[in-house]
Amino acid sequence: MKKQFENNRQLILYFIKGSKTYFILAILFAAAASLFDLINPRIISFTVDSVIGSKKASLPAFFNGFIQGVGGITYLKGHIYLIGVFVVIVAIIGALFRYLFRLFNSKGAEKFVKVMRDGLFEHIVHLPFAWFTHNPTGDIIQRCTSDVETIKRFLSEQLTQMLRIIIMIVLSLYFMSTISIKMMLAAAIFIPIIVTYSLFFHKRIGATFEKADEEEGVLSSIAQENLTGVRVVRAFGRERYERQRFEKQNTIYTKAFMKLDILITWFWSIGDGISGLQLLTIAALGAYFGVKGDITAGDYIAFVSYNTMLVWPIRSLGRVISDMSRASVSIDRIRYIMNSEEEEDDKDAINVDMHGDIVFDHVSFRYNDDGPLVLDDISFAIEKGTTLGILGGTGSGKSTLMYLLDHLYEVSSGHIYINGVDIKHINRDYLRKNIGLVLQEPYLFSKSIEA
After folding, report:
1. In a 10 Å sphere around its CB, with 0-12 CB exposed, 13-18 middle and 19+ buried, how is residue 9 labelled?
2. Is 176 in contact with 43 (CB distance < 8 Å)?
3. 147 has a pLDDT exceeding 80
4. Partner of 407 at 20 to 30 A CA spacing, among 117, 257, 306, 354?
């Protein structure tokens, strides 16, 4: 029985199994990189206030031990280049951790998307033939390419970044609180503002993106149909008609994405305004508290540095919340495919001797539940060793008879027997391997002569 995915989280967890370790390592290295990024502003603050200035240093025990090990603050005053060397070393270590974060993050993303593509293709080739009549080829391709890339981009560039952002925000606020609680609260108050307006745009961007994605699927279907049936288009002189049909859909698709672009433009513009206001607020408050003597020059430099580092994570947090709407739409579209029931034999399916009579017993069939009957109460028998020719106009149901005999569709009513056994009880693979179909329009799969 095929696994059903009740929500998007289950789908992601199903495909992420083979790449989970990579993403865990990526998050750990991202946390380490964030920590080292936040050390240097503190070093600069110490240098300005306690090495160049005369303020008593208040550093963690590790740093105090290190300073005493190199000769103390007095020694650093005469050899200030050592602080510069230490800053460079910290930056290099941070850069190394960022490299490892991106390396494992990229490996995890590629492994994830490979597993997803393989799983999708494996599932699609086992779907019932009737499923493909209700789902255009272009739309299926769109889901397996564009939507898969959207999910990959969200998981590798946004979801892991979100965890890194949260770590960065927590650490930044902690370091800022050690300098000034009041200024830290002033910086932190902008976080819920950005999150709130991001949630406001979240649903609107999601609905607009879904519409644009659907229109892109229709456009892909038109292109696929024309490339596949180019001989028919040329033979009947339909180039102008097909071009106009493509241009009409392309206009609809373009308008849908322009609407999405307008929403995203508003989202980013408002975010830039809020971020700019935060920077201005902290700069003004820092200058005010500095004049009052509540913070030193070194603390002011460090706090501004931390606030600058904080602006990017807050902006990115808003972006992630906004982009979640796109990813959610794409995951829903992939989940639709994965939740479609595969073609399965019943547990009592058997292999039978195919060298027997073929009987259509009061067979009726319609392609859609509410559609017209294509075949209506058809009954005939083909005795073993005989040949039967069926004539009829285009669309009269000749090919449909063969599709039903091959069990590509389920009959709406009636029965089809081979050697006295209803084909519903015959193993599908065995049945199809023993029935030869020569289609009116043969299809050649691409392959070299050498292969």
Report:
1. exposed
2. no
3. yes
4. 117
**What mean pLDDT comes out for the span 225-238?**
79
Strands 413-418 and 375-382: unpaired
8 Å CB contact between 278 and 184: no
Window from 73-77, 138-142, 258-262 with minimum mean pLDDT = 73-77
Reduce the secondary structure of 410-440 to three states and give it as a string.
CCCEEEEEECCEEHHHECHHHHHHCCCCCCC
The model's pTM? 0.67
CB of 198 within 8 A of CB of 113? Answer: no
Which residues are bridge partners to 350 per DSSP? 426
| Rounded distance between C-alpha atoms, residue 278 and residue 187, angstroms | 7
385, 374 contact by CB (below 8 A): no
Instruction: Report the C-alpha dihedral over residues 125, 131, 134, 136, rounded to 10 degrees.
Output: 0
pLDDT interval class at 451 (50, 70, 90): low
User: What is the per-residue DSSP string for 319-351?
Assistant: HHHHHHHHHHHHHHHHHHHHTSPPP---TT-B-
* 304 φψ region: left (φ > 0), alpha (ψ -120 to 50), beta (else): alpha
CA distance 403 to 188: 66
